[in-house]
Amino acid sequence: MKKNIIVYPAAATVLFAVWWLLSALLRLPIVPSPVSVALCLQQIFLQSIAVHALYSLARIALGLALAVAVGYPLGIFMGYVPRLDRMFAPFVYLLYPVPKIALLPILMLLAGVGELSKTMMIFLIIVFQVVIAVRDAVRAIPRETYFPLFSLGASSWAIFRHVLWPASLPKFITAVRVAMATAISVLFFTETFGAQYGLGYFIMDAWLRVNYLEMYAGIVVLSILGLLLFSFLDFLETRACRWQYK
Hints:
Blueprint: H1 2-26, H2 34-80, H3 82-95, H4 104-111, H5 115-139, H6 146-151, H7 156-190, H8 199-208, H9 212-240
Helix pairs in contact: 2-3, 2-5, 2-7, 2-8, 2-9, 4-5, 5-7, 7-9, 8-9
């Protein structure tokens, strides 16, 4: 984590330097300088864009919470009980390859264009990756690992806490991290339909108003939001999976 304090600002400095160079060479309104965008962001952050960012973050958090609440237990049971894996795996394999964005019209017809359809889209993007990652992690545990625990009378909670949880947690966090990028991208798209708040709505609205400074300010905030989510997952992994960093 200490290295990230230095690495992230250094990477951001390089990106902003390239951005500034492109804006200076092109001299086009569509590519404003990062300084102008930063000043615009400072002016409108508390007035409007912070509210849009909170709406987007709330949708991601709710969709992620639902995906974890459903996907993690299902993955544990499928990995631990082969019969359940044979029962549910065909449904997972049939639904997982379907592009989730293709389901958006169906969700909007069933759940409307409000918050529910957007949250369900985030849920569908994350839940299948969680199920498969957790199931594979649990299924990779040798069956012989459980025999001493059974003979000693270990409870189901003890097996979960000392075997299943440590084995599945790293792959679970990795699955969420991989799915998060797709979820943010799709959230941007869904917020352009039937929404008045959200970074996707803010960016597209600024684009339609030909306000490129606000458009870029929204893109920067969306990138920062993604960075914060990924950093949180990295922090969670270092705390919850300490044995991997010894």
